[in-house]
């Protein structure tokens, strides 16, 4: 079922218990959206929604993989999991999932439910830290 250890995970499960046993084996990869299968099965979707987006955020990473060089080095920071709303309140970006492998962010709901596979938040991940403030 699995190819090379760094290859994308391919899940073809028929029930959640099969999925959970595979996930325990791949507990580090499953948290990283980079390794999620391109075609999302219903059992994988169900598992992820039961866990919720925060399970996949990787908030405790050091984010060094996200470093990008523009006029100076920029990288993703833990503060980017939050945003300031127009009324001044601080809101959580619960939809954001950070990929440790890729150093980019993905959208939880988009990755699970979107049919637009060419969207950055689904395919390669967003990593333009000069424009991160435009994220909702």
Automatic annotation (TrEMBL):
Lineage of the species this protein comes from: Eukaryota, Metazoa, Ecdysozoa, Arthropoda, Hexapoda
UniProt protein name: Zinc finger MYM-type protein 5-like
């Amino acid at each position: 079922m699995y190819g090379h250890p760094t290859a994308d995970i391919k899940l073809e499960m028929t029930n959640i218990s099969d999925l959970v046993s595979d996930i325990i084996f791949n507990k580090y990869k499953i948290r990283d959206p980079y390794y999620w299968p391109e075609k999302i099965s219903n059992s994988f979707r169900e598992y992820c929604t039961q866990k919720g987006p925060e399970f996949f955020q990787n908030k405790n990473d050091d984010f060094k993989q996200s470093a990008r060089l523009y006029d100076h080095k920029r990288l993703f920071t833990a503060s980017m999991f939050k945003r300031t709303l127009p009324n001044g309140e601080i809101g959580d970006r619960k939809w954001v999932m950070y990929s440790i492998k890729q150093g980019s962010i993905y959208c939880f709901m988009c990755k699970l439910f979107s049919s637009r596979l060419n969207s950055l938040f689904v395919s390669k991940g967003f990593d333009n830290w000069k424009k991160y403030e435009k994220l909702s």
